[in-house]
Fold these 2 entries.
Entry 1:
Amino acid sequence: MPLIEFAEVTHAFGDGPAVLEDVTVSLHERRIGIIGGNGSGKSTFVRMINGLVVPEAGTVRVDGDSTANQARRIRRKVGFCFTNPDSQIVMPTVAEDVAFGLRRLKISKTEVQERVAAILETYGLKQLADRPAHTLSGGQKQLLALASVVVTEPEVLILDEPTTLLDLSNERRIRREIEQLDLQVILVTHHLHLLDGFDRTLVFHQGRLVADDHPDQARTTYRALI
Ligand SMILES: Nc1ncnc2c1ncn2[C@@H]1O[C@H](COP(=O)(O)OP(=O)(O)OP(=O)(O)O)[C@@H](O)[C@H]1O
């Protein structure tokens, strides 16, 4: 698993208050959960892993590369799935959107088509392949966003609240898929049950990393905080 290292990371947006303060942590487990109240800094923390946010103070490294100057290299390893799928859908149709992520891998057109077909099947989107992506429902878009990242086979998959719009059956589907993926998963969620079977869970509170534990203990700490 890649090694993600935060060293004395502090960050504020503009003139605002610090949204992360003095975070030092190393992550290398297969399944890592991130929990905490609204505005506690979870999204900012995970956005730092692939350089979407570069900290004002301190460093974030992935396998030794700093996000401050190696973000492109890091993004080849680290796939990111946003809470709002609209921010991620870039191509007109569902199949084209999935294929878009594969453009920089030097693979044949046939292989692209095969990979796209396989992932659409897995995520229950096969019937929607030729639909304009913007006409999908919120949950279908969330599945599409996830499929489009997973198809690129990243080494690390960051999921920022990936199930907020999903019904029970699709949440179960995503949970099963996540369990099976042979890569490092970092999951930000308010759905605490999704962390069952995870190796480790971090709890954020008002910009500070206040617990770093087995999910059961971390969930107890979080419940006591709110
Ligand atoms: N681009 C930005 N510009 C200014 N402030 C921001 C920006 N992004 C986040 N913030 C602020 O940083 C703080 C932490 O936000 P963050 O999105 O990291 O929290 P979160 O724990 O993911 O919250 P939630 O559970 O509500 O998604 C919030 O007060 C938020 O308003």
Entry 2:
Amino acid sequence: MIPPGAPILTADAMRTAEEAVFARGVSQDELMERAGAAVAREAVRFAMGRSVLVLAGPGNNGGDAYVVARHLREAGLDVLVAASGAPKQGAAERMHARWKGPTTSLYGAPVRPVVIDGLFGIGVTRSLERSIAAVLSELVRGAEFTLAIDLPSGMDTDSGDELGAPRGVNATVALGALKPAHVLGDGLSRCGHVLLADIGIPVESAWRSVARPQMETPGPRTHKYSRGLVAVVEGAMPGAGRLAARAAMASGAGYVMLAGPDPAGPAPDALVRRTIDDADDLADFLAGDRIDAVVLGPGLGRDRRAEAFLRAGLAVDKPLVLDGDALSLLGTSAAATLAAREAPVWITPHGGEFDRMFAGTGSKIDRTLQAAASGATVVHKGGDTVIAGPDGRVRVLAGASPWLSTAGTGDVLAGLLGAQIGQGGSGVDPAAAAVWLHGRAAQLAGPAFFADQLVAQLPEACSECL
Ligand SMILES: NC(=O)C1=CN([C@@H]2O[C@H](COP(=O)(O)OP(=O)(O)OC[C@H]3O[C@@H](n4cnc5c(N)ncnc54)[C@H](OP(=O)(O)O)[C@@H]3O)[C@@H](O)[C@H]2O)[C@H](O)CC1
Ligand SMILES: [K+]
């Protein structure tokens, strides 16, 4: 579980936001008191009277930990602090001085049923020493419940890379904002449930976790064209195009056409088919006034005809979703080709496709933003899906069902996105809506589903957005 629609800040951005609060006259002690109190409120609920071991590190995460320990002791719990060393200075040192309960060394700490992890937060700069990582892991494994302050200790804040963090943390209280580490890679599974504490730091961020979208019920004047006509181009593997088309139909598009060399095939009968002879024919068809959005790439193939179809799609002045084979055909020239196009374009690569198209450095968010500088909105799929727009906005969905890793689910997402952009909307918003619906349909489908069954869950997922 991750708080929806929550701001995501890097370590540096968090520190800048914190500095702005200090500049308004709030002291570091006050902020640490708020942080510790917020964590303690959650901790006391989860502890339910059990004895608590509070792990305190040398920095401000450790300072927060001493505040938590004090509140829990005041709440009547049996609290022992296990310190990895003396707090360095400033507020952390002062919170240490206010702790009047028992303290032991981290290395000799006993296993207790509740552990509060306040060793390191956003200040981790390198991998934890093996001895610290081992003790931390042992104490977490021995506990019935572990709550991490801000982050499980030993995670790279900005990339989510693991730097010695334990497995088995049950919940994490993110202070002030989410950090990339809560949502990238396997960060969420290391954090457990992520709770967000407002500690009075005003936060502005163009990066947010994906939230449930708001969809509109059709009104009395709505008709099939006003709900968007989506054209799905099919190719060598017609099933992929059909899946995309059916996903668009099941997520609110008013009219869906499947266009390609051989669009005939099994139901649905409501899917309108259009036979396309060659790339010129495709270009003429896509230029038609009624078409609001084009989906091109699922099952397209990679032969000459596919290349010509891609060129025809790129030349059309309509919102365009490129997926699957279209991305492979773009290859390393993706950035230049996308930059040359004026009409809006969305691309939906998985990790392998993304790496074949773009170089890039830094975290998954950084690399996706670099790709979006091409002018495309990039939906970089995975267990963590990162959506970045050319305007710098980012949306991240963490914790999607691992059962989505099956053939055809990407085609479903491409069709969903086609339906969203066919109804208007630009940049990351329709992409976030499509990704949310996709993830929710997967939850509803349960385990071991296949892509057709994902489509079947889409109306139910949509109904939750009305
Ligand atoms: N979000 C907010 O605005 C607030 C956050 N608070 C809390 O503060 C921490 C961040 O505190 P900070 O002091 O910057 O960093 P940490 O406590 O996470 O850790 C820094 C100390 O740890 C040492 N360090 C770093 N990496 C390692 C390592 N691999 N092994 C051993 N020691 C390490 C580092 O020392 P150096 O050796 O690098 O000099 C520091 O001593 C944030 O996460 C919140 O919990 C505020 O309390 C409220 C406002
Ligand atoms: K921590």
